[in-house]
């Protein structure tokens, strides 16, 4: 198989037919041998029924992976990469904000740039609010300053990989996944291609500010150990504060009880913050130690090659 197109789906009943038709039209007049790997991430609408219609029609080789419940896009992408059979593997959303025609451009880049192992699409001009754009900018500044791997700002999960890079990504089977970090961690040469995000054909985005915030925390905790070093920073700060307070007490007649209360509150807030960070790491170690699956497949259909 020359190309696998991995498509995570979650409640995309209004978009999935349009997406499927667009992919078929895009590749219709090419000689590219491809498959579509749909990963139904526990959709509660008619996404599963429509995918089964595609499978039964047999117009194109299709894999359908139905999760037993919603495990999240990260798990869906991992499942799709793991089951893809192509020498090249692309990841694309089903809402048509990412035009499948860009996949052809990505393939051309890989054919032209033999040293490149992947092509990642990034938004040259983001279409989002100023507050969200500012938060994302600050996130990339923060994580690049404390992480051992580099995160390229504004890159999306819309990418294409050569098989050797896919195999490296699959080998990283951690439960709490942050794919942007994993793509950077495994290395390889990546070409960054600008693209324009189109409007959703139907429905609304599954992401909101809270989900993006949790996603950012996953990235920070998953790819840096700096929070574990915070107790040492705080201990130095508290010792310095102790010296300053000691000098003040020697030269000024202050109310000792009020100062003591403020110092105790300050120390307690720091201790709770540190305990919270350490607790997050311990929780992840606990869950990882259970060796829970990243996803559970309820049904997996593999279609025959129709092309």
Describe the structure.
It is a single chain. The protein is α/β, with parallel strands linked by helices and 307 residues long. It folds into two domains: 3-126 and 153-203 and 294-302, Spore Coat Polysaccharide Biosynthesis Protein SpsA, Chain A; 226-289. The chain has an eight-stranded mixed β-sheet with strand order 7-5-6-4-1-2-3-8, sandwiched between helices. Helix 9 runs antiparallel to helix 10 (256-289). The protein has ten helices and eight strands.
Overall CATH architecture of the largest domain:
Alpha-Beta Complex
What best-fitting shape do the alpha-carbon axes yield? elongated
The succession of helices and strands, N to C, reads: EHEHEHEHEHEHHEHHHE
Rg, Cα atoms, Å: 24 Å
CATH topology of the largest domain: Spore Coat Polysaccharide Biosynthesis Protein SpsA, Chain A
The percentage helix is: 40-55%
- What would CATH call the class of the largest domain? Alpha Beta
H/I helix tally: 10
The total of beta strands comes to 8
Query: What's the overall average pLDDT, rounded?
Result: 80
Largest sheet: 8 strands, mixed
In the sheet with the most strands, the strands line up as: 7-5-6-4-1-2-3-8
What ranges have pLDDT less than 50 throughout 5 or more consecutive residues? none
List keywords for this structure.
elongated, 2 domains, Spore Coat Polysaccharide Biosynthesis Protein SpsA, Chain A, 307 residues, 16% strand, alpha/beta, eight-stranded mixed beta sheet
